[in-house]
Structure formats: C-alpha cells, structure tokens
Design goal:
The protein is of the alpha/beta class. The chain has 2 domains: 273 residues, Alpha-Beta Complex (Spore Coat Polysaccharide Biosynthesis Protein SpsA, Chain A), CATH 3.90.550.10; 64 residues, no CATH class. Helices cover 30% and strands 25% of the residues. Strand 16 and strand 17 form a beta hairpin. It is globular and about 60 Å long.
Length: 360
C-alpha cells in the first residue's frame, strides 16, 4: 500500500506558533518532533519510507525535505500554489494513478494527534485488505466521538459488514459536514455516527474516477499534468495548470456527492484529535476538563482548565486563571479565553497591511 501524507496547511488557529512561513506541522507543538515527523513515525514501524509520499507546498520544500530526509526525493509532491484540499488530493491521486493505479492508497494528514498507534496501523492494514479483496472501493476511518463536535464531518454508519471477524467494519450511509449544534448533539448520543477524520483508503484509479465524475473540469486539467509526470515538461505544465484549478475543499468536491455503494467505514477509537486550534489541543492533552496543560517554562497557581504554552526562554506564570489560553513566543504573547480561540484566525488576517504583518 502507498500512503500520501498531506502537509500543506497554514494552521492560523494555532498562531502565534503556526504562521504563514512556519506552519504548525513543521513546528514542535508537542514533544521533540514536529507533528509531521510524529505522523511519519507512527507509520514507519509498519510501512517502508519508499511507500510514503508527502504532499505540500513548494514554499516548504526545504524544511519538509530536511525533516524527512529518509523519504526518497521522488516521493515529494510539491504544489506550486495553494488551491485548497480538493485540488491537492486530486494532484496526488492523478500522479499515483499513473504509477500504481490498482494499488491501495491511504490518504492521511500531518497535523493530527493519534494516541493509539498500534490500532492506527491495524486499521490501515484492515482497510487495505478490504480494498485488495475487492470487498470495498473506498474505506473511511472514523473515530468514536468524544463530544458533540461541530467543526468536523460526521459519518452515519449503515449495517455491520457481514462475514468479517472484525466488529468495527460498517457499510457507509452518509456524510454530514460541520453539522448544527442540535444535530451534533444528536449524533453524539447515537451509536450510529463517528467523526470523519479525513483518513481513507481506496485506489488511485477509483479516486481519479471520482474527480472525473464530480469535478470533470478539474480532472481534465489534472490529466494534463499526469500525461507529463516524470518528464522534463512536468514542472512547467504543473505551474501553468495548477493555479487555474478551482479552490474547493475535498468534502465539497467529492465526499458530499458520494453514493453508498461500495463504501465502508471502520469505526474505532484511535485516541485521535485534530490539534488545529489551541482549545482542541487542550481537550486532546488533558486527562479531565479541569486539568491545566502546560509546555515549556511555566508555573501556575490556583488555575484550572487552562493551556499555557511557553516557547520563549522567559518564565511564564499564571495565577487565578480559568478557561484561559496563554501562548508565548519570542516575539508575541497571546492571552485569550478558550471560547475566544475562533477569533484568532480573523485577527491574524487583520494584520495584513499593518506594521505587524510580518508576524502573521
């Protein structure tokens, strides 16, 4: 099986650690490795480096190849400009379709936390088996929900897949992307829904067929790139074609249009979290809600349910804090309540054109 790990996002909600020139997946958010390096480390006990591909923006070429120097150079897929996740997955799928059309391919992301690593590798192999045995054309990996999350997609499970020893395999029924609060609360109370992690296993041939069916104009353009992949014309054609592609998410381009036939879901607890925002990171790392989560040189007194991350050499002290976020870097100090985290992205965008633009 081939694996494509996507590492092209900016991660504005984790500002000021994550910035345009140094996105979160390349920084040491948790521990001594970047989240990108941690993602690859979860894979390499089971999968060979030559079977792992990295998709990211050309502006991150130097840092990503330095952090993953053991990945073959030809396995890096560089997007010449940012066009959202739909075109990014499309580019990788058309490139791999030229080389391994019928081989299972897993699509993964570089900025997630996965605590149950052995289970993670197991479900990847299970999904691979379903594809190889032609039991399914497309297999989602879904996380058991921990709360009524409105920021994720949810998958409704159909019947259990018959004839399988695994009790985690279900038929796919439908996808609900970023539901209303009342719907998310209903999903959470039901045992028929799981979080959609954006992880799935299929074949490049089937994936490109979905692009051809649902976004034919994009597929036609990507086919031009596919035709010259591996030749001297590749970078020139890619630079011409890719900026023309529609900016669209993969969910809107493909997933919400899928019909259930041939689709399956693995329902599992991976200890997964999308650490795309400071409040999400707090939820992922705390053993209970009242617990403080700290990083770096930090002291707290009479504080609860707060996250204090200090990436500077100074001592950071929090007294009488409740539900607060404190992030300190060498050039920025961010302090806000947990429920104000969604405002961070808009604030960072507002720095454009100001004397502080270089901090964005």
């Amino acid at each position: 099986m081939k694996i494509v790990v996507f590492a092209g996002g900016v991660g504005t909600r984790l500002w000021p650690l994550s910035r345009n020139n140094s996105p979160k997946q390349f920084g040491k958010l948790i521990g001594d490795q970047s989240t990108l390096q941690q993602t690859i480390s979860r894979l390499t006990p089971e999968f060979k480096p030559e079977d792992i591909y990295i998709a990211t923006g050309i502006q991150y070429k130097e840092v990503v190849m330095e952090q993953l120097s053991f990945i073959p150079p030809q396995n890096f897929i560089f997007e010449p400009t940012r066009r959202d996740v739909g075109p990014a997955i499309g580019l990788s799928s058309f490139i791999l379709d030229k080389q391994f059309p019928d081989e299972p391919i897993a699509i993964l992301w570089s900025d997630h936390l996965v605590k149950n690593e052995m289970d993670f590798r197991h479900v990847l192999r299970l999904a691979e088996k379903q594809i190889k045995d032609e039991e399914a054309k497309f297999v989602f990996i879904g996380q058991h929900a921990r709360f009524a999350n409105q920021n994720l997609g949810w998958i409704e499970l159909g019947d259990k897949v018959e004839g399988q020893d695994e009790d985690m395999l279900y038929n796919f029924k439908r996808l609900c992307y970023r539901p209303k609060l009342e719907d998310a609360e209903h999903f959470f109370k039901s045992d028929k829904y799981v979080w959609n992690l954006g992880y799935f296993v299929t074949t490049p041939e089937f994936l490109t067929s979905l692009f051809t069916k649902y976004v034919p104009e994009m597929a036609s353009e990507l086919a031009k790139v596919q035709d010259v992949y591996g030749s001297e014309q590749y970078e020139e054609v890619l630079a011409e074609v890719y900026p023309r592609l529609e900016k669209i998410s993969f969910d809107d381009a493909i997933l919400v249009k899928l019909v259930p036939d041939g689709l399956q879901v693995i329902s599992v607890d991976l200890g997964w979290s999308d650490v795309g925002a400071w409040d999400a990171l707090k939820e992922a790392l705390a053993s209970h809600q009242e617990e403080n989560v700290t990083h770096g040189n930090v002291l707290t007194e009479d504080s609860v349910d707060s996250l204090l991350f200090n990436y500077s050499k100074k001592l950071c002290i929090g007294i009488d804090l409740e539900e607060m976020i404190v992030i300190e870097t060498d050039d920025v100090l961010l302090v806000c309540p947990k429920n104000s985290v969604p405002k961070i992205k808009k604030f960072v965008e507002s720095l454009t054109g100001t004397p502080h633009e270089h901090l964005a």
